[in-house]
Design goal:
This protein is α+β, with helices and mostly antiparallel strands. A hairpin with a 5-residue loop joins β2 and β3.
Length: about 80
Amino acid sequence: MEKSIAEQVVDFAYSLRDDGFYRRPRYSELRDFGGRLISSSNDGASFVSFGPTDVWEFPDGSRAEIGCSIAEVLV
């Protein structure tokens, strides 16, 4: 079975460093996958986090949560 775009994005996030650890993808990289930011922990917050958790939706309808230290597919 073919991976969803969100699964590909999560794989990509963990491939960005030579040591195999996670690096948060840049917004431009997520847009290259066709991603659209649909929510952020900074939305309506009384303070702005410099490490927000964002939810991105992709053209196939899949979604990924992208955080400061983790990326995961949302079901």
